[in-house]
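Here is one chain, start to finish.
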Amino acid sequence: MASRTVFRFLILLTALVWIVTADNKKRREPWTNGSWFNIARLELEKLSNRTDLFSDTSRLCARIHGLTSGQRRVCKRHKDHMPAVSGGVKKGIEECQYQFRGRRWNCTVSGDETVFGPLTLIASRETAFTHAITSASVSLSVSRACRDGRLSSCGCSRARRPRNLHEEWVWGGCGDNLEYGYKFTEGFVDIRERERKVKRGSREQGRQLMNRHNNEAGRRAVIKKSRVNCKCHGVSGSCSLITCWQQLATLREIGDYLRDKYDGATEVKVSRRGKLRLSDPHYSLPTAQDLVYLEDSPNYCVRNDSLGSLGTSGRECNRTSAGIDGCSLLCCGRGYNTKRIVIKERCGCKFHWCCRVECNTCVKTLEMHTCK
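Its structure:
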């Protein structure tokens, strides 16, 4: 009798372990199998002159780990777009690291195919920013690739003439193809969120809706910061002819804009009907240009590999700053260490005819502060 009871207990325990494991696998599946951000690691821009690689779309698209089946189909149809996509993601990650260089989370990348490591599992405002900035950067990169004639399916912008443009000015210079860049990026990036069927109102659906919203916010940022650029033509600067065209902003301008959106990101939750709703009714409704997130950020003050937090110990801080890069906030109240560095460099150089340069040696002492 006792052995039968033990046997039943073992069966129930095994079933419970299987259910928990399957549930955790299900929760992790969309993001731990790699990320499309991984395309930045392949340096496709440098490989684009290899005709043997780019003539075989199956080889090219198979090398990009992290793509879903839908993204692989797009890759095979538009193989010449992939170097622009790869370069766009890479520049987006670099811009992320620039924007957060003085913050507790500094957009650290990992060595695996998820690119951002365990952070991709957390539906935080940091994840929201990574989706927005990469989507924006890819849209920017593809739009300019069209303008430069590097893609077979698009060319210069065919945007309509702005209504408020001076009637004597000529519209039709070779502008950045914002429309094509937007549509291609929407199809390539968002397809991974649309093709996987999930339960309505589930956490997985909430994550899909969050990703799509932030991807769109990144593309909207490119549109919002675009402008009309004009140039004079004529003899001796007479400006007898003025030509205007559509021009996109720099990624730095877009990054500054999205960082402000990150600071004002809105916490949301998914309803039973499968819609994103405000977590706090006192907040204002987010627009399509705003960033949204589902979960609180982890504690970036201390190292926690399972959460993707490297901590701030050893990070350089600004002793005189009262901002987030200051030693008080960046070091999370732990204090900081000060190290004096002596630098010798050439200075006061003078050129003597002919032909030598004589310089003095200047000695500077710098202080470097790092978090404890």
